[in-house]
Specification:
five-stranded parallel sheet, 5 strands, globular, alpha/beta, 139 residues
């Protein structure tokens, strides 16, 4: 399975990535808006879409090329979702955040129907695998 994992603190997910890769998954990491944009564009150009995107929805923007300059700097995850909403992309997304209350979840899922699952940090490997499986099946 091809997975794009967008997370600014790569050291937090290192063990998960190792386990996913050990299971045969191809995992691309993107730690910034610029890296995300590059990964998305490369996948489009090669006609090799990701099967699922794991997104830290509260990831700060940081430095680098902005996908959409109208989005507030503290909401890079929202900016990525707007980019993923393009008709030629729309890959299933699993949102990941330390804050996942029902109101937040509903707001994001109502606005972006390709966000299929949410995980609350800290995540567990079995929860991650389950969320990936559900997201891919509902696409």
């Amino acid at each position: 399975m091809r997975i794009l994992w967008i997370e600014d603190k790569e050291h937090h997910i290192k063990r998960f990535v190792e386990l996913l890769r050990a299971d045969g998954d191809e995992v691309t990491l993107a730690a910034s808006g610029e890296a995300t944009l590059e990964a998305v564009e490369e996948a489009k150009q090669k006609s090799e879409p990701y099967d699922v995107v794991l997104l830290d929805v509260m990831m700060p923007k940081g430095e680098g090329k902005r996908i959409d300059p109208t989005v507030r700097p503290e909401l890079m995850g929202e900016e990525v979702l707007r980019q993923m909403a393009r008709p030629e992309i729309r890959w299933p997304v699993v949102g990941i955040s330390a804050i996942v209350d029902q109101e937040f979840r509903n707001r994001v899922c109502d606005k972006y129907d390709f966000v299929k699952e949410f995980l609350k940090k800290p995540i567990k490997m079995d929860e991650l695998r389950n969320a990936i499986s559900k997201a891919v099946k509902t696409q």
